[in-house]
Specification:
Strand content: over 45%
Shape: elongated
Structural class: mainly beta
Radius of gyration: 24 Å
Oligomer: single chain
Number of strands: 37
Helix content: under 10%
Largest sheet: 5 strands, antiparallel
Number of helices: 1
Length: 480
């Protein structure tokens, strides 16, 4: 989660359930260097957490992971840096929540089973102040925001031994952006930790984890001025994270299970495939959750267990992958879908395979995500409705015959969206890297040094490895 001001338009408050005949209004940022970790709307701006020199799709950058930067990106204005935090590890994980009045950030340095964690709170104009810290923690601190109110997981730090069943006392902290406002803490049962929080006014829901011998079990409880309520729902082996509260009080929850019986390759009692992560809802007064049909399985991070789901207005949005893997050489498509809490009016907002939405943010009728930028880096996108499928990046070699001069040839290539990647000589056994490239959209020329073995054959077989696109091959005849 970069450099140029984000070109986010001011959209009318059009619900995602609006007319499909209307083309969506879409705005895309300029190039964003490094790796975006999280984003959240703050009025007409986006708050973005990123690693400026992080890796993108496995490609490493210098100084990777050593800086976490939180920025405010407002249309037509310079980027405002809210936080620069130096971390000791490359696998920093972040929870981020924002509103027009407040920003709250939870960070975990993921270098081992336990790692330092911190929480910052402040207004979108900055600065952010540190309100909680653990020298050793198991989870990314849970955070939530509702207008000027902010909530975060306080305490629940790992003990000296680092064992999951030895934690310091934990509570849900509720406060305002103004540091003069007193913090109200709602304690949770001893030896338990907080995994997720959803906030509406001065009350909400919290996911409290009960450590077991193998993993965690989740209890979802209400909290408010009267303290912590009883268990409303339970997940025996996994997470049941509150991701938002709808206007009628219905809670949206992201369920991620550690139980092998819930893995995607295990059928349910009717013989149908099932997901190890899904979006569910819990209506007011209901005694059990109800799964939502979100068009696939909820995506989750292998490293942190974090899932991508949120609430916007009266709809639940999720980042999903197919329920059943496709038999294809292309990557599985990743989509952002939107559905009403009563399981009606399912819409796909965006979808892509080689180039897919990498994260999710939503506010009213606007949906934001970040994706690979074909010409290098990443980019932020904001839309107020469904958009066409994301096109793969591609490079086409226009030259079919090339003259060899001083062992080199000049190739004319075409990238419609720009492209980054590598060109490999695959003429015979023992492929050889010829060069890497970063090209802007359009037709460009590339100079390549052709190995002697290929020059002797009079032709070169090129393997084009494009980041965010399919691999292609091209044969170029050589002439002297």
């Amino acid at each position: 989660m970069r450099r140029l001001p984000l070109a986010v338009g001011l959209f009318a408050a059009t619900a995602l359930s609006g007319q499909d005949s209307r083309a969506a209004v879409v705005s895309t940022s300029g190039p964003v260097r490094g790796e975006i970790l999280a984003a959240a709307f703050s009025g007409d701006a986006l708050v973005v957490a990123r690693r400026p020199d992080g890796r993108v799709d496995g490609r490493r950058g210098e100084g990777e992971g050593r800086t976490l930067r939180v920025e405010l990106r407002r249309p037509g204005q310079p980027v405002t840096v809210l936080l620069n935090s130096v971390t000791k590890d490359t696998d920093t994980a972040v929870n981020l929540a924002a509103s027009p009045e407040a920003v709250v950030v939870g960070l975990l340095e993921n270098d081992d089973d336990t790692a330092p964690s911190r929480v910052w709170v402040g207004p979108p104009s900055g600065p952010l102040r540190e309100v909680a810290t653990c020298s050793r923690s198991f989870l990314v601190p849970a955070v939530a925001v509702d207008g000027p109110r902010v909530a975060w997981a306080d305490g629940g730090c790992a003990g000296a031994t680092g064992r999951s069943f030895e934690v310091t006392p934990a509570s849900v902290a509720l406060a305002g952006v103004d540091p003069a406002v007193a913090v109200r803490r709602t304690p949770v049962p001893a030896d338990q930790v907080i995994a997720g929080v959803a906030l509406r006014g001065d009350a909400g829901l919290v996911d409290v984890l009960r450590p077991t011998f193998f993993a965690f079990a989740s209890d979802v409880r209400a909290f408010g001025p009267q303290g912590l309520g009883g268990v409303r729902e339970r997940e025996p082996f996994g997470f049941l994270l509150p991701v938002g509260l709808l206007p009628d009080g219905t809670a949206a929850l992201a369920r991620a299970s550690f139980d092998e019986a819930f893995e995607e390759d295990q059928p349910d009692e009717r013989g149908r495939p099932r997901c190890s992560a899904e979006t569910v809802v819990l209506a007011p007064g209901a005694t059990t959750r109800r799964p939502l049909r979100i068009g696939g399985c909820l995506t989750e991070s292998d490293e942190t267990g974090q899932v991508d789901a949120t609430v916007a207005g009266d709809r639940v949005l999720s980042r999903v992958e197919p329920l059943v893997p496709r038999r294809s050489s292309s990557p599985e498509p990743i989509s952002i879908t939107s559905v009403r809490a009563d399981d009606t009016d399912l819409k796909t907002i965006v979808s892509g395979s080689f180039r897919a939405p990498l994260g999710l943010a939503a506010d009213g009728g606007r949906v934001g995500w970040w994706q690979r930028r074909c010409a290098g880096g990443q980019e932020l996108v904001v839309a107020d409705g469904p958009v066409p499928a994301l096109k793969a990046c591609s490079l086409r070699v226009v030259t079919r015959r090339a003259r060899v001069r001083a062992g080199r040839i000049s190739l004319q290539v075409r990238c419609s969206l720009g492209c980054t990647g590598r060109i490999v000589d695959d003429t015979q056994c023992g492929p050889q890297l010829l060069r890497s490239f970063v090209l802007a959209p359009g037709t460009r020329r590339l100079r390549l040094r052709v190995p002697r073995r290929s020059r002797a054959r009079g032709r070169v077989l090129l393997r084009i490895e494009v980041d965010g696109g399919p691999m292609r091959r091209a044969v170029v005849r050589l002439r002297r």
